Amino acid sequence: SLLSSFVFLQPSLGQPAFPSYTQQCTDDAGPPFMDDPSGSLYHDGSAATPVLKDGGCPAPLQSACDSRGAKTAYLEGPLQCNGNGWYCRILPDPNWAPQNLLGDLNFHYCNVTDPEDIGHCHGSNDDSTYYWWLRDHWFRGYNGRLRCCC
Question: For the CA atoms of 15, 17, 20, 22, what is the dihedral angle to 10 degrees?
Fold first, then answer.
């Protein structure tokens, strides 16, 4: 099921109340999670905007949208794919400079005759990694349109 469609933009600093513990790795981009200012979110003040279908959030993010608002839910979760796994693709968006995205393209659509890597994609079978993947790629400057699915 479609999880989210989002415009991914320039980073800002902030430590969320969620997640309750850090999974940040030493090679993750951005400041150490524990150094983030308390009470703010890493994406505060950004122009990132969730793309809502019919004005609502998708089922895997509905609980997060209800408790945290759509922007925070889309960029942080918590995600509820119920152990079925998730993946996200970041595609260039003509409305935003891609910064570092174009240097790390890693997928192409298999239904094209001349396959060329066109975006950046990752996923996991563990819902709790969603926040950490988004935060890392945010600070890497992989600007573009983010689309995630369970």
Answer: -10
Closest CA to 99 of 5, 8, 24, 36: 8
**pLDDT per position as a tens digit, 83-137:** 899 999 999 999 889 999 999 999 988 887 777 889 999 999 999 899 989 999 9
Report the C-alpha gap between 30 and 21 in whole angstroms: 17
The three-state (H, E, C) secondary structure of 1-24, written as one string: CEEEEEEECCCCCCECCCCCCCCC
* CA distances from residue 91 to 6, 64, 111, 127, 141 in whole angstroms, order as listed: 10, 24, 17, 22, 13
Query: Distance (Å, rounded) from C-alpha 16 to C-alpha 7?
Result: 20
Cβ atoms of residues 76 and 16 within 8 Å: yes
Residue 36 has a pLDDT of 75
Residues whose CB falls within 8 Å of the CB of residue 57, separated by 6 or more in sequence, listed in order: 50, 64, 65, 66, 70, 73, 74
In sequence order, the β-bridge partners of residue 148 are 4, 88
Amino acid letter for position 86:
W
